[in-house]
Design brief:
CATH topology of the largest domain: 2-enoyl-CoA Hydratase, Chain A, domain 1
Distance between the termini: 37 Å
CATH class of the largest domain: Alpha Beta
Number of strands: 13
Radius of gyration: 20 Å
Strand order of the largest sheet: 10-9-8-7-12-11
Helix content: 25-40%
């Protein structure tokens, strides 16, 4: 039951690209926060089934439609107000460039439009080779490290190569069961995982893991190579990723000597370097939202 005694309920959140909802916050904040694990898992699976490349950076997605319906159906009588911000980061400073307060969706839509303009890095051409750095204090698992896949895929060229430098990644999942499921099934592609969800009870019972396996697969469109300092070759290849020894990768793609964006390597190779994939979304210029 919802407690009717509150005079005002305020939901505060930052509007940024999100791999499950398309864009974070607004109805997602309340519905996911109050909906419990079943709602979280099923909404993640809905987004994965629809296809992450049709979700990223958009506000009009099937997942968002579910969140908005839940608010209209169950929360419409609450004294609820949203405080939504849009920010930009320069060096170590973060500035608020948009502030939208209210319950109606038009404020959220205006925040999304501003976020799409400032929180997405638009590239003029598809990226053939992308190198992403995962700092070791933030990224300890592929569950988190695969943001390097989520956030770059709209910019990756067909047949391209994504190389992930991961000094701190030492496990797959954030808990034992998800770790086991990732090891068992691997990042084998959306269609394969959807089929397995119909026949394998452990995937049916853990839709968040199934959704993660779909989101983390490049579906054969580009290759993903992990240079994980704390993981063995057979572990990385066992989940359908390519492997590169960490020291070899660091020697070839030293993140401390690369600048964010395009770099020309000594051998003439052009790469696109990202120093923290969790902080943005990369897409081709002209992308229709």
């Amino acid at each position: 039951m919802l407690d009717p005694s509150y005079d005002l309920i305020i939901s505060i959140g930052q509007v940024v690209p999100h791999e499950v909802a398309g864009v974070a916050n607004y109805t997602k904040n309340i519905v996911i926060g109050c909906g419990g694990s079943q709602f979280i898992n099923r909404s993640h699976m809905l987004g994965a089934a629809c296809g992450i490349e049709q979700i990223l950076g958009r506000d009009d997605t099937p997942v968002r439609k579910v969140f908005d319906y839940a608010q209209r159906r169950f929360l419409s009588r609450l004294p609820l107000e949203y405080v939504l911000t849009v920010t930009v980061s320069k060096a170590e400073k973060t500035d608020i460039i948009g502030l939208y307060i209210g319950k109606e969706r038009d404020g959220f839509e205006r925040a999304v439009a501003l976020s799409q303009k400032h929180n997405i890095c638009y590239l003029k051409k598809p990226v053939k080779t992308c190198v992403a750095w995962l700092n070791e204090w933030e990224f300890k698992s592929m569950w988190l490290g695969n943001k390097a896949i989520y956030r770059t895929r709209l910019a990756m060229a067909n047949g391209g190569s994504l190389i992930i430098l991961a000094p701190g990644v030492k496990t797959f999942g954030e808990d034992k069961e998800i770790n086991r499921l990732i090891r068992k099934y691997g990042y084998i592609g959306r269609e394969h995982i959807l089929k397995l969800c119909r026949t394998e009870s452990d995937l049916k019972d853990n839709l968040s893991a199934a959704a993660h396996l779909i989101h983390g697969s490049a579906d054969g469109r580009f290759t993903v190579t992990y240079a994980a300092k704390e993981m063995k070759k057979e572990e990385v290849e066992g989940v359908a990723f390519a492997y590169m020894p960490f020291d070899e990768a660091m020697e070839k793609y030293d993140p401390h000597s690369l600048k964010p964006g395009y770099n020309i390597m000594p051998d003439g190779e052009e790469i696109y370097f990202i120093d923290n994939p969790a902080l943005g979304l990369w897409a081709l210029a002209g992308q229709r939202w």
